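Quick one: structure tokens for this chain, please?
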Amino acid sequence: MKRIVFYLTVCLFYSANSYAQNPWTQKANFPGGPRAFTSAFTIGHYAFVGLGYNGSYLYDFSKWNETTNTWSSIPNYPGAGSYNATAFTIEGKGYVCLGLNGSGTTTDMWRYDTITNAWTQMATFPGIKRYDCEAFVIGHKAYLVAGSISGPPYLQDVWVYDAHQNTWTQKANWPGGQVEEVIIFAIGNHGYVGDGWYPGCTQQMFEYDTTNDSWTSIAAPPPAIGITEQPDTWVAGSKAYVCTGGNCNAAGLRYGWMYDTVTKSWCEFNDISASKLSRGNGVVFTINNHGYFCTGQDTNLRYLDDLWEYTPSTKIKVSDTNLCATDSVSFSDSTTYIASAWDWSFPGGTPASSHSQNPKVYYSHAGTYTATLMLNACGGDDTVIRTISVIGGTLNNPIQGNSSVCSGGMDILTATGGTTYLWSNGATTSSITVSPSATTTYSVHISSGCGNEDTNFTVHVDSSAVFPTIIGSDTICSGFPDILTATGGESYLWSTGSTAATITVFPSSTTTYSVKVTNECGSASADATVFVAPAPVSLFTSDIRTGCAPLCIQYRDLSTLPEEKITMWRWAFGNGDTLNEENPIYCYHDTGTFSTSLTTVSNNGCSSTLKIANMITVFRKPIANFIYTPQPVDIMEPTVQFADESTDIYGISYRWWSFGDGVDTAGVDAQTPKHSYMDTGIYCPELIVENARGCLDTVTNCLFVEPLYTLYIPSAFSPNGDGLNDIFAAKGTYIKSFEMYVFDRWGMELFHSNSISQGWDGTIKGGNVISQEDSYVYKITVTDWGNTQHYYIGEVTLLK
């Protein structure tokens, strides 16, 4: 039988003070809903996840696209098992078999084809029915190891499925004993199986050689108390990651373990402190050397539907690889494995070496330097080298030239401080000659080893012809200012009397402004007309202003705007919600008092706002509730005392009762009515309450008027054929099943019946001879209407 013990997912990682980065990334949630004990297989960059249990046995499947991070559905699994079924992939096709359902364990197997999007039944598993059976795949064969038959004892047999032949063959038993929930994976042409539950944890690991069907003991996972309880494993390259499960102390593991087939050793890899990954009973799979964990249960046994991606890495992070002299550069390791020691080397830097995890180094001279990290981390020592380039100098970026030239004149602009230059006119020299016909701004992009910089220089052109311009808004809203700026001269005189180049005006209606612009060559004038657009007059009403939650209100816009058009409405309902409609219907679900505001916007962009404070009041509904006694109710005492226990902040004003049997109610405002039921059965009394604000709530609680079980057993009978009291039989009411035996004083069975309507006629097992006058023992077993069993043993006297 399945052991109901829950363990934490062990893929947890330590804080940044000890480890560098979080290698987990959350992906799109599984669309089938929260669940555990799921199954998964992968084909290309797709994962297929389904089956499982969430209080019910589930048979749906969904496909996840690793490239787009999207889910889509595929046909439901047609097989029998859904709980901890075995799944694997062979040559681009998915296989699912075994598992558990409401009727027990199963043996059928089905293959999914992505081309036809259909399931096909394959050869039935010939071994013992099971679930919690683990599998690894090498080539076109899948190897299934051990499992559970709702044990203990568990299983240790090994079966290989040949996808080319669609056949099963039994192989040499796994030497780790009768277990379930083992660690299992395949790398290259070898399979690996370890630990497991027998019951009790084991600490063992074996490598399987497919060429000679043999097992070899190898280094076991480091936890001395073993790993079990559905440990999940994914493979990336030559490494396998064990991530979930528990130990023999009934505690979830808090560490992950990685096995490297190159070094043939185990080590601990980072765990994460994100509680979202604290779970068990999920499923893992591998796509493109990334591990994925999906579904499961958290520490409160809640079912989950999230998907997480794990990406291991080992590298150096450098704040900058190109810097100027005297600048500092910060180094840090970004391995996802647990590191115990750091050995940094910085030739030419200060300091020249460090054993800190995240050192900071200074370089005082230009040159090319190498930074080396020798890291003692999970999987063995690792060495990473980065190159740092240091150059001297700083940017010196002003442009030199004349800021003003005459019309037709030339100017030489010179930029300094860089190694390359790119001017706005396309030139790449440090100096350019320009002859602008009007005031022009030139820009240059200066680059050097210490950085990049963009700078501008404006050349003003004076001419005998003055071409003044006025910059500002053509149209403004009523009540708003406009900023007008004149250009093209050295002095300015506005029609307002201002002599500044820029003025701020507040026209109440459409107004024309003029400016006289003067320079050394003369003067000229320019005009600008500012059109003043009217703003709307915001106004609105509503059909109601008070009511019970949820309160739905029809708002109506009454705003006006002569000769213009209102193009936008912005409603704010005082609770953070907004709508952009002309006449919205809005429903308040929370109680309280709310202010409503409306902002209207014209086709010219002018707006006005009206706010009505405390416009809407939403009252709280009462909470209807009642109790009744006695419990249970039976037909012998069918009178029920009801008591209203409704609550409300305003007070209950009225009550309406209906007792579910068609009889008239007890009347309005009966707080503790009594009601008698005339027959047995299920009745659903209903109470409607109304508070002082007119808000209603209804509650219905069903009750069962139970029937009365009775049984009468006579103490004597006279089977003399006179038609009176010739049969010994019990009589009763509300009886579901009946069984009676009659024995003589020496224990011999004389009569047996399974029907209350069939009594004993005094003969021996239905013969022709009536038994002698004596006392006989009866044994009666009765099951009443409520499935309660009653037992009776007594004596009956046979008289002739």
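Confidence is low (pLDDT under 50) at residues 1-21, 249-253, 272-276, 392-396.
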